[in-house]
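[AMINO ACID CHAIN]
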Amino acid sequence: MQNLSPPLFFNLKERLIFTLFLCLVLGCTLGFKFYQFHTLKSQQNPQITAQVLLQYLKSKDDKTYFVLKLKSDFGVFYTTSREDLQDLKYRFLSLRIMLDKVSFGEFLHRFYAPSFNLVLLPNQDFKTPLREAILNQHDTQLMGEYYLALFLSDSLPQAWRTLAQSYGISHIFAISGFHTGILSAVGFLLLGFLYKPFHRRFFPYRNAFFDMGFLVLLGLIAYYFLLTQSPSYLRALTMSCVTFFLLWRGLDVLRLESFAWCVLSLLAFFPQLIFSVGFYFSSLGVLYIFLFFKYFKIPKNLIGRFLYGALLNASTFFLMGIVVYYFFPYFSPLSLFSLLITPLFILYYPLELLLHLFGMGGILDSLLLAWVNFKTYTIILQPDLITFALCNLLTLLGVFYLRAFLALLILNLAYYGYGIYLYFYGF
């Protein structure tokens, strides 16, 4: 059946007008960030307030010091301290920072700034009671921190990071579009039971889908204010808002042009995303899903749809291979389990949310501890710049040509096979 949904823009004039609007937004955003940067630079070692997101020890030249990842009103940055600090994670500090060597480009992303006069403030993070409620449901700190990362976007313990690298499942630990989709599905399911009876009886003239979608979107926005520190979730939430707006206006959300304008809009409102590898990965992942939809139609029978979903999951996994290994070159054949773990996570994530709400979050701890303690081994699989550039070129060509899309898939499959060869026979 032919798609009758109207496009986002009908002619070049409308596209130019929206491009000028995005340029204006980008100019205002960069102007405000530069004003913040200039204001701080104009002060002699400005005194700021920041929250400690991460604290760990590091050694250099036989000297040990603490590295602190801090969140302030102007963004996230790193500093160090040679003092014998207590555990400051999620506490608030007053400190002076030195920005002499920080450029505006570094300020837009994440930067390092030396600091002094660190003073612990009495302020408490509003999420502290929630963190304690989660930790109290687990017998080990490792499992408690695992669920803090899963639900509140806290830092993932090192043991779980190592496991995520081995199994290729880092995406399920960073709260992002994947989690947004799961939470939206759960929201629609619950509202289907609660809202539809009222809809049928009192206001059947309203569009139930858009009413429930609006309520789900409000829930996702409320969840962001709970997280407060998840750039990946902010990106996913913004794209969810844009998608809902397009649906509300009767526009086709699966048009590649709509997706392109969404990416450009995000860059205009959040220019620091241009430095974000996570944004690059998430944009590519969504693009590959869109291209799969474009070249392979969804079957009508149930078995066909199940196989279609499995192939969609597998193709996205392999298509992301080279670009991911270029930045994070840790490889293990165990990553094939991601093809099973990812769809299972769709059931596991809402189940654990429910169990934690009823105080039974530790039921699966013994199984998960056995898993995380299972020894794994990874090798360094580092694609060269030419292979990485070729993947990006084939991605662009894949927007227009099926052969380029298939060539990209074959290239990534071959490279994954090369990784398996190196893992078993390369040394």
About this structure: Residues 12-41 form the longest helix (30 residues).
